[in-house]
Design goal:
456 residues; alpha/beta; Udp-n-acetylmuramoylalanyl-d-glutamate--2,6- Diaminopimelate Ligase, Chain: A, domain 1; UDP-N-acetylmuramoyl-L-alanine:D-glutamate ligase; 3 domains; cell shape; peptidoglycan synthesis; ligase; cell wall biogenesis/degradation; cell division
């Protein structure tokens, strides 16, 4: 099925189409390009124009360029535009304009991608669903997701992220959501903002792109919830709070093996659902997801049944057995809020010993040393037996821990990974968590390589 014809793409971007082509997908990476794709020659660390010839050789139906690259014939199938990134934005804007379904946008300091996946899976069977791939949530990821959206999409889930002030509002205006959800506000990217209040205002900017009489789904129990409500009110949104209280509230989440059996009340309706995780923070986000889907016109009870098929993504809290130990792989990202949630998950699971292996939390600003020290007094720490850590920031936690919980500290995660198997014993349950740039995922890789899972 055609996604864009040459004439439609040219009209959307005010560009010039060379040839009469049509595309079935859009790619920005020749390593994953598929026959029929439009290759978009973005400029980042490398200039995409250098890869146009390769993309066409691999079967790309056309390439979006701002000039004819060296080695590419002038009569090759091209879409010539004045500037590639603004043209991609224009194509995304046109993709959103021609779609008559409902758009749900999701942002938050923690849990954007897992929440987006929850929403996508919960909507199964309720029409044509389109969602962002991976963590495509920035200035090129959002327009790319919109440009890839089929015209007959019934529900689209758009993830919107930020690392600096002023990034969310333009992306939300591009997506024009009917429902916008904030998962939470936490000390992530704090070094780019003056305070947590500043992060809250930036997250609340997602409501600026809402369609008229759109719905703002926001967390109820945060210190910055009033700021989020102010942002929603300023946008003229219908406000739907979720959490332990509010119009969408989690009534209970009971552990059943490696799952949670949950009940929620959402705008007066009782829903029961099961989650394939023991992390109660996921259950709270699931309530927000169900509230958002219901506000977008989805069948609430069907979505509650569908959410049972969701699995925590790799590196974001999935539990797996590795021989004689159990691993909670949460090594993709970390800030004080998500680390606290990870420790609570570890504390709730049975094991011979509960062991945390932690890498640095990054981008926390001038209070980063104290934020690392404060982890020692996290309520879940009472149930955790041992903490190994890596990185200069985690040294502050290492020194703040009681001696009986103080494991090994190393300067780098690679040093810890090299000896991690010696630090664990049979029956341990292990949480591995840290910011992506701390490279604590090397510990997860080392565990998987060193432990032979018994065959049934």
């Amino acid at each position: 099925m055609s996604l864009w014809t040459a004439s439609d793409a040219a009209a959307a971007t005010q560009g010039q189409a060379v040839g009469d082509w049509h595309i079935t997908g859009i790619s920005i990476d020749t390593r994953t390009i598929q026959p029929g794709d439009l290759f978009v020659a973005l400029k980042d660390s490398r200039d995409g124009h250098d890869f146009v010839a390769q993309a066409l050789e691999k079967g790309a139906a056309a390439a979006m360029v701002s000039r004819i690259p060296e080695g590419v014939s002038p009569d090759a199938p091209l879409l010539i535009v004045s500037d590639v990134l603004p043209a991609l934005e224009a194509l995304g804007r046109a993709g959103r304009q021609r779609m008559a379904g409902k758009v749900i946008a999701i942002t938050g300091s923690v849990g954007k991608t897992s929440t987006k996946e929850m929403a996508r899976i919960a909507l199964a069977g309720q029409g044509q669903i389109h969602a962002a791939e991976a963590s495509y949530n920035n200035h090129w990821g959002v327009p790319l997701t919109l440009a890839r959206m089929p015209q007959d999409t019934d529900f689209a889930i758009i993830e919107i992220g930020m690392s600096n002030p002023g990034e969310i509002a333009p992306l939300s205006r591009l997506a024009r959501p009917h429902v916008a959800m904030i998962t939470t506000v936490a000390a992530a990217h704090l070094e780019a903002f003056e305070s947590l209040d500043g992060i809250a205002r930036e997250k609340g900017a997602i409501f600026q792109g809402l369609e008229p009489v759109g719905t703002a789904v926001l967390p109820e129990e945060l210190p910055v919830t009033p700021i989020l409500r102010d942002c929603a009110d300023a946008a003229g949104a219908v406000v739907l709070g979720f959490g332990q209280h509010g119009m969408a509230r989690l009534v209970h989440a009971k552990p059943e093996g490696e799952a949670l059996t949950c009940r929620a009340r959402i705008t007066g309706e009782t829903v029961d659902f099961t989650l394939n995780t023991t992390g109660t923070h996921f259950a709270v986000n699931a309530v927000g997801v169900l509230a958002a889907l219901s506000a977008a016109g989805a069948d609430l009870q069907q979505a509650a049944r569908g959410i049972a098929d969701w699995q925590p993504p790799k590196g974001r809290g999935a539990v797996e057995d590795l021989g004689d130990i159990r691993l909670i792989d949460d090594a993709f990202n970390a800030n004080p809020t998500s680390l606290s949630a990870g420790l609570a998950t570890l504390a709730a699971l049975p094991g011979n010993r509960r062991v945390a292996i932690l890498g640095d939390m990054l981008e926390l600003g001038p209070q980063e040393a104290q934020m690392h020290r404060d982890v020692a007094t996290d309520p879940a720490m009472a149930a955790i037996d041992l903490v190994h850590s890596a990185g200069p920031r985690m040294r502050h936690l290492h020194e703040a821990l009681p001696k009986d919980k103080r494991g090994l500290w190393t300067e780098t995660a690679a040093e810890l990974a090299a000896q991690v198997r010696e630090l664990l014993t049979a029956g341990d349950i292990v949480l591995v968590k840290g910011s992506k740039s701390s490279k604590v995922s090397a510990v997860v890789d080392a565990l998987r390589k060193s432990v032979q899972t018994p065959t049934p």
